[in-house]
Automatic annotation (TrEMBL):
<dbReference type="InterPro" id="IPR036265">
    <property type="entry name" value="HIT-like_sf"/>
</dbReference>
<feature type="domain" description="HIT">
    <location>
        <begin position="9"/>
        <end position="124"/>
    </location>
</feature>
<feature type="short sequence motif" description="Histidine triad motif">
    <location>
        <begin position="106"/>
        <end position="110"/>
    </location>
</feature>
<dbReference type="InterPro" id="IPR011146">
    <property type="entry name" value="HIT-like"/>
</dbReference>
<protein>
    <submittedName>
        <fullName>HIT domain-containing protein</fullName>
    </submittedName>
</protein>
<dbReference type="Pfam" id="PF01230">
    <property type="entry name" value="HIT"/>
</dbReference>
<dbReference type="InterPro" id="IPR001310">
    <property type="entry name" value="Histidine_triad_HIT"/>
</dbReference>
<dbReference type="InterPro" id="IPR019808">
    <property type="entry name" value="Histidine_triad_CS"/>
</dbReference>
Length: 124
């Protein structure tokens, strides 16, 4: 597992060094609007702990952090009007490492919705 980089943009947001458009915050999780939205609803949900990727988070985070993260994500999707009980659905995406085209080395989940998302990957 790569070493966590304390200077990544999400670490800086969590320390209050960078602004963000907060949607929800708990003791363990922060959700905020993406600065370059790829859909009408594009929210990032991040744990406050130092996890590089989803597999790092799933393997190493305490149960309370894992539960809080997923419950916060569900609450944010509902508040944004994209959950199945409030809207027409959403896509949740996380990228890991070079082949996953991860841009920020801090685990984060994208919630994308508000319009049809199309196929997950383009087939050649």
């Amino acid at each position: 597992m790569p070493t966590y980089d304390d200077q990544n943009i999400f670490a800086r947001i969590l320390r209050g060094e960078m602004p963000n458009d907060t949607v929800a915050e708990t003791d363990h999780t922060l959700a905020f609007r993406d600065i370059r939205p790829q859909a009408p609803v594009h929210i990032l949900v991040i744990p406050k702990g130092k996890y590089v990727s989803y597999d790092d988070f799933a393997a190493n985070a305490p149960d309370a952090e894992i539960v809080d993260f997923h419950r916060t994500l569900a609450r944010v999707a509902a508040q944004a009007g994209v959950s199945l009980d409030k809207g027409k659905g959403f896509r949740a995406i996380t990228n890991a490492g070079e082949n996953g085209v991860q841009e920020v080395p801090h685990f984060h989940m994208h919630i994308l919705g508000g319009a049809p998302m199309g196929r997950m990957i383009c087939r050649d």
